[in-house]
């Protein structure tokens, strides 16, 4: 058996028994990356020497501990929007080329403390703006299921890395779908937790009221392990919440473990234009959850259609403020100019890519005097209505099931000259970010082109464990999550 084929949970069991070492496990993944990432380009930065050092430390720690930490010695890939001391951080942008942060993001730090081995940094759309990784200044990541297609985005490098068995788990960020949509396109499981559940300290900010730190892995059980190790209050992020997080309990009872759970199906998520195979696979998966005991009920989220315009005002507005710090003075490269102002504009004009520039322009416009009330202010009001839709729905059901994206992975270049078509990829994922609720994506089938199809479950604030249990129950009776791309 190739050790890189082990899921996190499988690797955990073998490490605990002493059948394998973290050194062997890490080496197997590094070798696979070295052999195959030329075709995928999932990693922007790989640090094999450091990974092997961390693995050796984990092996030594295991020998001295009676009850070693559950994640000790397990490899992890980190999306290149989190700072990790000792590694470059580019955010997929030329404006941060060569930047080496002196500190480590809290989520990463917690996972390091739990004993995980950081392999390197994965590709992303520039500043996490995009749905395909095509907006990365360092080149696109290819989907392991079909190299001509995108892996989704913006955490496309992380999703492709998990799908290609480069790593058992990866970190992503999700502002409007960036963990869930690539998880869906690559056939892996991805969790966007509740806003404030995982510290954002050290995650380079995109849309601060929407950004959340998520995990990707091969199964709900794997994702649960990473999630519970990184969640929790952090002094360094004022928006992180003090809600207790314990290990997610995945024990299931009997033939119908979902008895008593109500799952809502909203007609607003089964709209025209959705790929027929996607709708069909999701409906079959919902029936499967029903056969596991869940009760399926119709619900309505009437303001869903406004999520897209609302998000594309709020996210760029917040982005325009957040990206103001990249000015050629504090981070990354600087282009010189006649005067200081010249230096700012030249550096930003040349080093930001097209999509980042578009967002800054859109956001600055939406926030400008005279337009603020009409755009940003109005969007915030509608955001409240979207949030209320969820509150009302969750008074009747425990989770909402829907597709992750309207289609399976599209061809590289398909939306090249049409930003709006790219924005439409996010219709089903944006509402959870606007409402701050958790969302989980996991594979439920394939289309005719043998591309993975994902289903999304959304839940109540701080209800991650419920979503993970539902998906875990589904994964006990199906094996879509074990399917492996054959082309890499
Ligand atoms: N695709 C969305 C955007 O471009 C969401 C990205 C994200 O979640 N980071 O903004």
Summarize the structure.
This protein is an alpha/beta fold. It has helices at residues 8-17, 22-40, 48-64, 106-113, 156-163, 180-186, 220-230, 276-291, 307-322, 340-351, 354-367, 373-396, 419-424, 430-435, 464-477, and strands at 43-46, 75-79, 117-122, 169-174, 189-192, 212-217, 262-266, 295-299, 399-403, 439-446, 452-459. It has a single domain (3-258, 396-482), classed as Amidase signature (AS) enzymes (Alpha-Beta Complex), CATH 3.90.1300.
Verbal overview:
This protein has an 11-stranded mixed beta sheet, sandwiched between helices. Helix 7 runs antiparallel to helix 15 (464-477), helix 9 (307-322) packs across helix 11 (354-367) and helix 9 (307-322) crosses helix 12. The chain has a single domain (3-258, 396-482), classed as Amidase signature (AS) domain (Amidase signature (AS) enzymes), CATH 3.90.1300.10. The model has no long low-confidence stretch (mean pLDDT 96). It is of the alpha/beta class and 488 residues long. It is globular. The protein contains 15 helices and 11 strands. 39% of the residues lie in helices and 13% in strands. Bound molecules: glutamine. Glutamine binds next to strand 4.
Itemize the secondary structure elements and their pairings.
Elements: H1 8-17, H2 22-40, E1 43-46, H3 48-64, E2 75-79, H4 106-113, E3 117-122, H5 156-163, E4 169-174, H6 180-186, E5 189-192, E6 212-217, H7 220-230, E7 262-266, H8 276-291, E8 295-299, H9 307-322, H10 340-351, H11 354-367, H12 373-396, E9 399-403, H13 419-424, H14 430-435, E10 439-446, E11 452-459, H15 464-477
Parallel strand pairs: 2-3, 2-4, 7-8, 7-9
Antiparallel strand pairs: 1-3, 4-6, 5-6, 5-10, 9-11, 10-11
Helix pairs in contact: 2-3, 5-6, 7-15, 9-11, 9-12
The structure holds glutamine.
